[in-house]
What does this fold into?
Amino acid sequence: SMIIRALTQGSADRLCGIYAIINSLTRVVGRFTRDEQEWIFSYLIDRMFKNRPKEQRKFSPGVMLTCGIRTRRLPKLLAACIGTNGVKLHKHCKGHLSDAHRDILKKVGSAKHTINGSPSESSHFEPIEDFFRNHPRGVIIFRWINKKSDLDHWTVCTGLSKTFFSLFDSIDRKKIYRKNVTFLMRERDAAGASDFILISSINYVFRSE
It folds into this structure.
């Protein structure tokens, strides 16, 4: 008979972008309590709904949870926490996050970077390697697509070795091998790509000491 499996988190919603932002802050700022995590989660959901693009304004909150966060939207949501507009989160979180975490948040920045060139060029890895050399405590948020499983997912990268990307991931994936990655600007250009497509627009998250 058919095996019935429990629905797992992420199977019905498309909130991996929210989890990626929280996980990036966890790596850069420090471990949050359960109450702090829940407050940041609700803050980001609220921002996602309030700042939704024009074509999604007719959607209900329930529908929004299954729409996912597109490549151009995540930097804007990230900016609601840190970076140029980072004061928003540390101002709003008084009474919700510890004083120590609020002080660290003031030092956290973000930047968007687009990797250009041929999808197969090894030079694509150079800006990522440079970032980790300059910011060993930093992380990168990027979106990848697994062609075999058709999974479209935001994740957090904590390092890049000669063979693989190390991940801090909401679906518990630990690594992606470099040899399996093709960099693309758009998923619709995926014909002939490797097993994993890494969308070329990436987001740096780092802490100023």
Q: What stands out?
A: The chain is about 30% helix and 20% strand. The chain has a mean pLDDT of 83.
